[in-house]
């Protein structure tokens, strides 16, 4: 279980002074390559044939700065910081209360169109709690240095390690062997990973993907403001520690399919031990009930339309109320009901007590 740090109540943040503006805060260019699942040796999932994109530009410099401004505010650091691995800390659950701009950004139609087009399926944020989860790789200053993180990213300096001259040695992770995160599959179908640090001379930092044959494939890390989109629920992967950087800050926003009728295998497996459970479970339960309610509404509408068609075919007067044609396919309805009960059972299972 994680260790919460400085988890005292902080004052409510002031109203946002910066509103999301796609012309100012987005700087998108399509990735040069989109890798399909088959290239990793896997079949396409029920959601998409896409496995992962090459890095692509996403945030403008202003967009990077505003993300950093909200992420490293006192409110976020006081309430949302967890120490879950020896080499890094995480910031979670800050939007919308402590990070209104970030909330606007990741819910904007412009951003959602970008990720949906790349994933080849319409996506929405999994939950507000899963917007802009930040991973901060610790340097020699440890956790105390996180509170001194500047809004303007420190400039990376070249070193002899990559063939360039060196003016001043950048800060490196004191233990390069420490994992940022273990091999895992994500809790949510899709993740968008964005770099908020100057990564021009970064050594390491790639995302490593496990292929079906047991070998692995490294996807290079994005540059500052750049992103990678990954169908992370279905691909085992890890993050390689980075060196030769003054800092390494990435954010992860998780997505699920917008269509409630599509497969939804979202879990809380990797996030329960690093979240405020009272808030996480509220968001989790309400999203699941919204999906169930929409599935029921769509199924109802389909049955009503089928009934009307049957009345037209079977009743000479075309009047409802005594249709002699079968509308309900009982095995079909049983299958649908069992799927919804399984969905409800999984909803409850994902809120089971944490183990020590």
Automatic annotation (TrEMBL):
Region named Disordered: 155-175
Top-level lineage group: Eukaryota
Protein known as: Fe2OG dioxygenase domain-containing protein
Species of provenance: Xylona heveae (strain CBS 132557 / TC161)
Upper taxonomic lineage: Eukaryota, Fungi, Dikarya, Ascomycota, Pezizomycotina
């Amino acid at each position: 279980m994680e260790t919460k740090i400085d988890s005292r109540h902080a004052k409510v943040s002031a109203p946002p002074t910066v509103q999301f503006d796609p012309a100012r805060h987005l700087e998108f260019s399509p990735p040069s390559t989109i890798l399909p699942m088959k290239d990793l040796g896997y079949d396409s999932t029920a959601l998409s044939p896409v496995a992962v994109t090459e890095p692509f530009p996403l945030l403008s410099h202003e967009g990077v700065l505003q993300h950093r401004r909200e992420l490293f505010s006192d409110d976020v650091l006081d309430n949302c910081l967890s120490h879950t691995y020896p080499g890094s800390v995480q910031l979670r659950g800050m939007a919308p209360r402590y990070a209104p701009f970030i909330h606007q950004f990741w819910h904007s139609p412009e951003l959602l169109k970008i990720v949906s087009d790349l994933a080849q399926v319409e996506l929405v944020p999994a939950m507000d709690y899963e917007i802009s989860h930040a991973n901060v790789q610790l340097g020699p200053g440890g956790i105390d240095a996180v509170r001194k993180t500047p809004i303007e990213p420190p400039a990376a300096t070249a070193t002899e390690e990559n063939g360039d001259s060196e003016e001043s040695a950048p800060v490196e992770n004191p233990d390069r062997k420490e994992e940022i995160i273990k091999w895992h599959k994500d809790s949510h179908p899709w993740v968008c990973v964005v770099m908020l640090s100057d990564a021009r001379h970064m050594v390491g930092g790639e995302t490593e993907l496990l292929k079906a044959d047991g070998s692995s494939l490294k996807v290079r890390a994005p540059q500052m403001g750049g992103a990678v989109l990954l169908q992370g629920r279905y691909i085992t992967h890890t993050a390689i520690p980075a060196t030769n950087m003054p800092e390494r800050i990435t954010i992860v926003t998780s997505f699920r399919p917008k269509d409630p009728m599509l497969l939804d295998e979202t879990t809380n497996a990797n996030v329960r031990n690093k979240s405020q459970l009272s808030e996480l479970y509220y968001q989790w339960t309400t999203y699941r009930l919204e999906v169930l309610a929409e599935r029921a509404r769509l199924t109802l509408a389909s049955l009503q339309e089928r009934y009307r068609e049957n009345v037209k075919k079977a009743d000479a007067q075309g009047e409802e109320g005594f249709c002699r044609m079968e509308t309900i396919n009982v095995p079909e309805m049983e299958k649908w009901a069992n799927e919804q009960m399984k969905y409800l059972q999984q909803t409850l299972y994902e809120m089971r007590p944490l183990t020590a």
